[in-house]
Amino acid sequence: MANLSFTEQKYFEKIFEMGGGYVLDFSNTDFQRFVFDSLQIDVYEKYNYASKAKLLRKLIKDFNDKQVGKLLLELLKYKQTHLGIKEDEKKAFNKCVDIGNRLVGKKTKKVKNKSEERRNKNKFDFAKFSNLLNELKEINSPQKRGYKFEKFLYKLFLENDLDPKKKF
Q1: What are the start-end ranges of the H helices in 105-141?
Q2: Which domain of life does the UniProt lineage start with (predicted)?
Q3: pTM for this predicted structure
């Protein structure tokens, strides 16, 4: 039996649109072939004929973590490739990927997004902000003030996640 909590299983049921007995857009034959490709079993031969959703629930109940994780990850890949992920499904989809990876034994490390990485790397110091502003006011040469102003704007935009570009 796969180590899936009730709540985790509900994430998959939502993503795979299992409410009406279906699993994604699979016909019975396609579902049978898909499961065979993943687990090398004929799902309709192993179990009495039932809805695809009931069959998937039985597979989750009867097979081990690694097998179930592999099947669920393959179903997620199919959904992403052939049906797409809607904006309101992204969080649940990513949660399902994490659960599937856990089941197959893959460790997932959290990846920060680029703006978070930049923010941590180039942490903007507000004391420096006021110092830079004061330095700008004191510069008499327009050219020097321009260079300082570029640096000032770059740091200001960076701090506010505006994805600034270095001068070219």
Answers
A1: 114-121, 126-138
A2: Bacteria
A3: 0.62
Give per-residue pLDDT as tens, 108-136. 655 445 555 555 555 555 666 677 677 77
Cβ atoms of 98 and 107 within 8 Å: the answer is no
Cβ proximity of 92 and 14 under 8 Å: yes
**Phi, psi of 107, deg, nearest 5:** -90, 130
* Cα R_g (the chain), whole angstroms: 26
| CB distance 80 to 94 below 8 Å | no
Q: Is 163 helix (H, G, I), strand (E, B) or coil?
A: coil
Do residues 132 and 151 make contact, with C-beta atoms less than 8 angstroms apart? yes
Question: For residues 34 and 78, is the Cβ–Cβ distance under 8 A?
Answer: yes
In a 13 Å sphere around the CA of 151, the CA atoms on its Cβ side amount to 12
State the virtual CA torsion across 126, 130, 131, 134 in degrees, nearest 10.
Answer: 170
Alpha-carbon torsion (50, 56, 59, 61), positive or negative: negative
Q: Which of 37-41, 56-60, 84-88, 139-143 has the lowest mean pLDDT?
A: 139-143
